[in-house]
Amino acid sequence: MIRVAINGYGRIGRNVHRQFLMRFADVVEVVAVNASSAPDMRAYLLKYDSLHGRLLADVRVDGDDLLVNGKRVRVVQERDPSCCPWQEFSVDVVVESTGNFLTWEEVCGHLQAGAKRVVVTAPMKDTTPTIVPGVNDDTLAADMDIISTASCTTNCIAPVIKVIDAAYGVESLLVSSVHAYTASQNLLDNKAQEPGELRRARAATLSVIPTKTGAVRACDAIFPHLKGRMDGMAFRVPVPTVSCAYMAFLLRREATVCEIHQHMRTASLQPELRGILAVSDDECVSIDFQTDPHSSIVDAPSTKVVGGRAAQIVSWYDNEWGYAMRVTEMTLRVGMQRSSSLPYAVSVLSPA
Hints:
- About 25% of the residues lie in helices and about 25% in strands.
- It is α/β, with parallel strands linked by helices.
- The chain has 2 domains: about 1-130 and about 325-350, NAD(P)-binding Rossmann-like Domain (Rossmann fold, 3-Layer(aba) Sandwich), CATH 3.40.50; about 150-320, Dihydrodipicolinate Reductase, domain 2, CATH 3.30.360.
- Helix 1 links the parallel strand 1 (about 1-5) and strand 2.
């Protein structure tokens, strides 16, 4: 069994825990979480979720710990990763999902505490390796003690960029993420969590809020030959989950809508992107993709081409569930690199 600890038990941390229980309970055991909430609150929010439904598991509280299907999940409350008792709990992989530790120096506290490897669920601010499943996961190496799975938006746009760049070449790209509000925003106007983000201080459910995104910066690391030719921003909108990315490409070679769709469909059936990239032909809206397991679902009716080289592609993603799918798969994969006794191959990474 791969022994996992989750550092940060918010929306992503709990969805990752849920997916380990639902998909990989026979090979992964969550042995610890580092969370500041009260014990009964932790259990309640793991079992019940307003967006993704009830967890079909026996969840109980025993002192400070959780009991999930009879197995103990130790709970710690440490602000400093280096103080977490990962060696005591024999932790193989830490899922770092606080969003607070974004450099190798900050994250390596988990290694100092005894964890073997760390998967960070956010874009890093330094040169820590960024791995996006289906895009550059062939670069994952056993000596990468810390990796980042970038952001939900990066996981949406990177597969599309990969396919389009291979087919036509990308001259430039502008990305606009129409993004669901998150727990980092305010229910009513109040101080923003990020200094200088004045518009993020406004009520999340009452306005469309222009803001910045780190998704494109992460793509610079994945596609270094496109660095300096991609940029973007985000609009936070009053929906609780499911976002979409509007991508405006300037291509090196001419394309048609039909050709673009054919390339996307073909790529979605290949082993690297199967279960990660999809194409939707129906006239869907955001709620239709709630709890969808894919990272990127191209909205075929929205694809446009002007003059052969200017192309618009829109892709949907459940910014919580789809992203958590990739995090669990990557955690399993890095754990397997250190566990030769596991009887499972990489094929288990295909979404159910």
